[in-house]
Structures are given as C-alpha cells and as structure tokens.
Design a protein that fits this description.
heterodimer; A: mainly alpha; about 75% helix; B: Rna Polymerase Sigma Factor, Chain: A; 8 helices
C-alpha cells in the first residue's frame, strides 16, 4: 500500500488534469487540510472509550472459543485429507499387482499342518474329512465317466447334501 | 517505520485475542474514527453508537485482516457501518411516515441534540452532497492515500480525484462565503 505521506500529489493529479487544474487541486487540498485542522471534530468521551474497552473484554472469551473451534476444525480437516491421500497412495501403489487370491487366504492355516504329508496322523478330524472328500471325488469321477447306472439327478442331490454336511462339519471343528 | 512495526505487533496481539492490544487499537484510532463519524452524521449520540459498533466489528473481523493498509481496512469497516446506519435510518423513516407518529422528528437527517453547537465546517460540509462529504471526510480522518481511498470506495482513482477536486473547490468557496 502507498503511504499517504509519500504520495506524489502533483504527479498523481497530473495524470488526470492539466497543469492549471493540478495547481488548483493542490491549493484546494492544502486549504481543506487547514480548515479541518482549524475546526477539529469533538473527541469521543472517556466514558465511551471505557465502555468500548469493557465490551471488547466481554467479547474476547467467546472469540477465543470460536478461534479454538476453528483450529480444531482445521486440524480435523487436515487429518481427514491425510487419511484420504494415504488411501489413494496405497491404491495407486497396489495398482497392477495381482489381487489377493486363495493362496493368501490359505496361508492363514498353520504352515505345519498345511505342508504336512501325513495329515491323517496329525488330526483325526482332518483324516475323516479327507476320506469323505476322497469318496466324493470318486463319486464325481463315476458321474463324469458315465458309469453310474442309477438316477443321476438323485446322485447330484446327494452329492450336494454331502458337500454341505462336509462344509458344516469342517467349520464346526 | 518503528511505528508500523509497533502496529504490526499490536495487530498480531489482537489476532491472539490479547485484550491489551485491542485497547491500544482503541486508543490509537478512536479519535480519528469518531471524527469521521461525527463529520458524516453531525450527531454525538449517533457517533457514539457507530464508534462502539466499529470496535465490536473490529473484534469480530480481525481474523480476516490479511495485511496491507490497516487504516484502509479499518475505515472500510467504518464506511460500511455508516452506510448500514443510513439504510436503517431510511427504513425507520419510511416506517414512521406510514405510521404518522410524533416520533418522526427523531429521524430528521443530521439534526443536532439539544444544546449541541454546530461548527462552521460541519455546517458547510452539510451543504455538500453525501458522497462528496464522505470522500472528503474519509481523506482527512483516515489519513489514507488517494490510491487507498479509491480501493476502499471500490472506484477508479481518476473518479476519486475528480470528485475530490470538485468537492474541495466547493467546500473552499462555502467556507469563504
């Protein structure tokens, strides 16, 4: 901002008025300043100033609360922005990698059991389960080869029921 | 320079909500702001009200002050308060006209309180149109440069200077007459 004390009035008025008008403007300005100096406006009453200060003091606690609230809102907004940006960054970084599949899920099963070649010996329940799966596999193979001579619809239903039972038993264990 | 540094410190204190700093701003600017309101209204009671309102607004709005001319910012608020006052007075006047009450006399423009003396300058300023009077008053009480005044009034600087030129010439003639 331009300081009033440093403004070059002659140059400023010269941009808009001719030389004669500039002189007239400057004289009128000086004269007006003298008139205002010679006719000072009344000063505000001391009581009024005291009242204004008291009013300000009364309003300041409310203003502090408002400021604190604004700061809190800003912090929450910044934290939310950070969370969103972090989420976006993770999404972008993971883009192109294969989606997690069955292997990741399967890895939750203890490695010792999963990799064991002697599961039946480790867990009696797993042995029973393996036997049932083996039986179902045999039945499916029979159906696929067309060697089954019975009612095939009925056989599929039985298979489905068996699968449901096996599945339920597995999750109960 | 030291004075502006000092002012920057006071304003920073106000932004932190320090009562002492607000008091310093009141001490520093109340005289000039009161003079501005008084020359525009010609009434001590109204000037008292407007000055109080100005500093209440100052407390509320100091957070929005982002630097630049503090006087320009403060007098912009003062100018807005004066215009609000004019609008509300206009509304009251209309209301009173429709109700045709005896209170009508309360809103006669710039009427002086009992016993209040009108100085010569006030009388002659009253003969100028409202906009010119406001411009001249703003220049002499705000201590702003013409560039800042043009910004406060949201008008081109050429317009400000032309109005000032005509207004001062008229005021000088009135004061001489």
């Amino acid at each position: 901002m331009e300081d009033r004390n440093r403004e070059n009035l002659g140059e400023l008025f010269g941009k808009f008025f001719d030389a004669e008008q500039v002189d007239s403007c400057l004289k009128d300005l000086q004269e007006a300043e003298r008139i205002f100096r010679d006719n000072p406006a009344p000063e505000p009453d001391d009581m009024l100033i005291a009242n204004i200060k008291a009013e300000i003091a009364m309003r300041l606690p409310a203003r502090r609360v408002q400021l604190a609230r604004q700061r809190t809102y800003k912090r929450v907004a910044v934290a939310a922005a950070i969370v969103v940006i972090a989420g976006l960054v993770v999404t972008i970084l993971n883009d192109g990698k294969p989606a997690p599949g069955r292997l990741e899920v399967a890895s939750l099963i203890p490695t010792a059991i999963w990799e064991s070649n002697d599961i039946e010996a480790d867990d009696e329940n797993l042995a029973a389960l393996a036997a049932e799966i083996e039986q179902i596999e045999n039945e499916v193979m029979t159906l696929e080869s067309g060697r089954d001579t019975g009612d095939s619809d009925r056989t599929i239903e039985e298979l489905e029921i068996e699968l449901i039972v096996v599945s339920s038993d597995f999750w109960k264990e | 320079m030291a004075k502006s540094d000092d002012l920057a410190g006071i304003i920073a204190g106000c932004k932190q909500g320090e009562a002492q700093c607000f008091s310093q701003v009141v001490d520093r600017y109340s005289g000039r702001c009161y003079g501005y309101f008084y020359r525009l209204t010609g009434n001590n009671d109204i000037s008292d009200e407007l000055l109080s309102e100005l500093f209440v607004k100052f407390v509320e709005k100091i957070g929005s002050y982002k630097g630049g001319s503090f006087e320009g910012w403060l007098f912009k608020i003062a100018s807005n308060i004066f215009h609000d006052h004019l609008r509300s007075k206009q509304r009251r006047k209309k209301l009173l006209e429709t109700q045709k009450t005896l209170l009508e006399s309360e809103v006669i423009e710039f009427r002086q309180s009992d016993g209040e003396q009108i100085d010569r300058l006030q009388k002659q300023l009253g003969r100028l149109d409202r906009d010119t009077k406001e411009l001249i008053t703003l220049r002499f009480y705000s201590q702003l440069s013409f560039k800042e005044i043009a910004q406060v009034r949201s008008e081109p600087i050429g317009t400000t200077l032309a109005k000032m030129h005509r207004g001062l010439k008229k005021l000088r003639l009135l004061m001489e007459g």
